[in-house]
Amino acid sequence: MAGSLAQRQTQQKPGARGRGGSKPASASQVAAPAVEAPKSQGAAVDLQAALGNSAVATALAPAKAEKGPAVDLFGAAMAGKEDPNKYKFAEGPEDKVAAPSNDGRMNQKAGLPALREKHAGSPYEDFKKGTSFVQGAGDKAAVDPNDVRQGGLGDCYLMAGMAGVARANPDAIQKLIKDNKDGTFDVTLYLRKSPYSRPTPVTKTIDARLPVKGPGSTTPLYANTGDVGTDGQTELWSALIEKTVAQHKQSYDKISGGNIAKDGFNFAGATELLTGKNESYQATDSMAGDDILLTIAAALEAKKPITVDSRDLATDPALTQQANAKNVYWNHAYAPVSVDMDKGTINLQNPWGSNHVDNLSVEDFKKFYRSIRVNG
Fold first, then answer.
1. Could you please report the per-residue DSSP string of 103-150?
2. Which of 107, 153, 184, 370 places its Cα 20 to 30 Å from the Cα of 59?
3. 240 pLDDT higher than 90
4. Is the pTM of this model over 0.70?
């Protein structure tokens, strides 16, 4: 953006918009099971209405997302009876056991998170060449938003949050994960002990075993791997964070969609989990178009993680078709990439790793998106 946002705002007349913005970086893709793509946007609408976001994602993109219930899925803090032993700071050898391979690798002592019911029986695979971070070709840092690719779990709120933090402050992601160099990782998240308490860092020791699509497969069921280094090491950071969240709830299914805020888990936003800073919520219905543009542009310029949530369009097939034509899918979270103030358009990253939203007018943004979440 030419000049600082403050300068642009000072020069801006009422109703005018400043210039700038770029397309989102394209993310690498992974193979998915063959699914016949919809031959028209109308077919995509029918597919989404019948089967939900995951079917559309499989048909249009290599990574899948699930449609959740028509509720506020992404930032509700829910009260529950507190278990005094629910949070444990993982530190030291008592959180590890020797792996059965006897090759010096360790496994986490805690049981592996349960899978979604539809994936029951799918195996876990030890990613022995897995490492926390790999700087891919063209990436500015080892942590890059294009490392994030959602898999077959409806946790777009978490994946978009990871992308938003990676874009704003990649060092914050790196500080969450310590590679113990023995097949295990200490992963820190910021959790609340009650809905009214401040988030505090809680660390769990997990290993490099991830659920995969079948015996011998190296394709994760859920969050996909990132870049591959010249030494063959595979980047795991987004999958490790997702597994850690699931570890806290002992189940991947319990972090899908609105399930994250159930069972006494005091959830107040994905970016808060990753940074320890509060996440603000703004409903787009109460915002003018220029306010939407300025809010997103200011967050990006200030290096504040930001995500946005699409509306539940399930009951409006015509609006769904309009949205799908622009890669907007219902009850889905996205991470803003850039704003063009002159044109009044917004670019958004889809956490599927493809089907990003380019040059969306602010009028369409307000029509298709219900909220903006800014961290810090």
1. SS-EEESSPPPBPPGGGTTPPEEE-TTEES----TT-SSSS-GGG---
2. 370
3. yes
4. yes
